[in-house]
Amino acid sequence: MKQGFDKRLKAVADAGDLLVGGLKGIEKESLRVMPNGELSMRNHPIGLGSALTNHYITTDFSEALLEFVTPAFGTTWEALQCICNIHQYTYSKLGDEMLWPASMPCRIPADDDIPLARYGRSNVGRMKTIYRRGLGYRYGRQMQTIAGVHFNYSIPESFWAAYRDIVGETANADEFRSEQYLGLIRNFKRFGWLVLYLFGASPALCKSFAGGNVASLQSLNKDTYYEPFGTSLRMSDLGYSNKNQSRINISLNSLEEYVRDLSKAIATPEPDYEKIGVKVDGRYRQLNANLLQIENEYYSSVRPKRVAMSGERPTAALRRGGIEYVEVRSLDINVFDPCGINQNTMRFMEAMLIYCVLADSPKLDARDLEELARNQLATAKHGRDPDFRLLRDGEPVSIPDWGSELIEGIAAVASVLDRQDGGDSYAAAVGQMQALLDEPDATPSARIISELREADCGFFAFALSMAKSHKEYFDAIAEPNDAIEAEYHQEAIDSLKRQAEIEAQDSVSLDEYLANYFR
């Protein structure tokens, strides 16, 4: 397998600057909280425009859960600068509120008191709220307030034609690109435990969080649950990898199978959800009673994506033009970074995703899927335990041993990126990650546990302190230049106008709209 990777990487490197300029984008979620750290119950700030149509600032599950979205950029610096600008502009509109700096939520209220995101009176806006209401019924609202960072990436378009010649494929361009992206996704599933180990930053949580399997956690102090060697409880059975979703198997062996399985899940009734009811006493509780309400409900650490046209469903977009980019969803918010992510993380992720394309990627059967799911769950809860072992083809292997093998290949990709781009920033980023394999106590998850113990405080107090320091950071840095401030201000104004236009254009009832959508 290594020989095949080495040969392909050399051919790519010899063919020119094929890897430079891959597009990178960030989606970052953050809860709005009050000065005392309690969840904000206020409406979405009007100064941020419409959560339905603002291109940069929207909401996720809750009215209090902001989501920042950058465009796709050719450099990590541009992406980081953009997410920083969005944070800075948002803080200027939050008044006394702050952004919660961690993936695990603040001192969270009971489910019924967590406000759902609201998007106005249009059919599409009401559908989005109903979908979230359904998530609350199905998984609990507390679980939906867990936040993360998504890293979107597409390999440069010029790469694909050259790479098709290198590997000797004859499939058409769309089919070849989709096939290779699925190979990337399968490998990321195999190796995704490495991301949890390196970047996991949710080893502890406030005891106010009652969702998930908290009974299995240890008590650090009167306020805090934790796993002593945990990396990312967000990605454990406590968070998104829960039993409800673990029953849904979506093939990654071909685009046809992926779309087929996802479409089937959206059309298959689920008895537990039928008990909830769909429209009860004239009010929608969920969009339908099927395994998935819509495609976005299927949680995966990585998704194949294509930009959809207006009104187009994600599966239809994939059928139309194949896979355009991948969305990595397993990054925790880095509590030590004001923006929740930094350039070294992005550089490493880019090199890792390219490695996942170039490395051999056999098809996954049921046994493979079971093994990789076990590796992810176990790493999330026990990844820093020196006695912990992953399974590789049924055989035990330590994270340092397997991780070092992977980082050797990722470092080779980084060297090519640096050679084509100039400098040594990618190699330096990968070198930092090798250091974390050598020293588990330096990982973000270990640092959080260490800080809690040294300060003799709970997770809530620690995260609240970090929230205050991040607010001070954005208050202290220079004001964004007039052009940037004007851009976000104008987008907020324009988004409100676009929402009003959408609401004015509705010509059918909500029932008809939903029937047409699912038809």
Question: What descriptive keywords fit this protein?
Answer:
alpha+beta, seven-stranded antiparallel sheet, three-stranded antiparallel sheet
Global outline: globular
Task: Please give the largest β-sheet.
Answer: 7 strands, antiparallel
Strand content: 5-15%
Radius of gyration: 22 Å
What is the fold named in CATH at topology level? Creatine Kinase, Chain A, domain 2
How helix-rich are the residues, as a percent range?
40-55%
Distance linking N and C termini: 45 Å
Number of helices: 19
The overall pLDDT average reads 95
Unreliable runs, pLDDT <50, ≥5 residues? none
DSSP, total strands: 14
Provide the domain count: 1
Decide which structural class fits the backbone: alpha+beta
Provide a descriptive summary of the structure in words.
It is globular, with a radius of gyration of 22 Å. Helix 6 (173-191) crosses helix 12 (343-358). Helix content is 48%, strand content 11%. It has a single domain, classed as Creatine Kinase, Chain A, domain 2 (2-Layer Sandwich). Strands 1, 2, 3, 4, 5, 11 and 12 form a seven-stranded antiparallel β-sheet that branches. A three-stranded antiparallel β-sheet has the order 6-8-7, with no helix packed on it. It has a two-stranded antiparallel sheet with strand order 9-10. With 519 residues, it is an alpha+beta fold. It has 19 helices and 14 strands.
Summarize the model shown.
The protein has about 525 residues and is an alpha+beta fold. About 50% of the residues lie in helices and about 10% in strands. The chain has 19 helices and 14 strands.
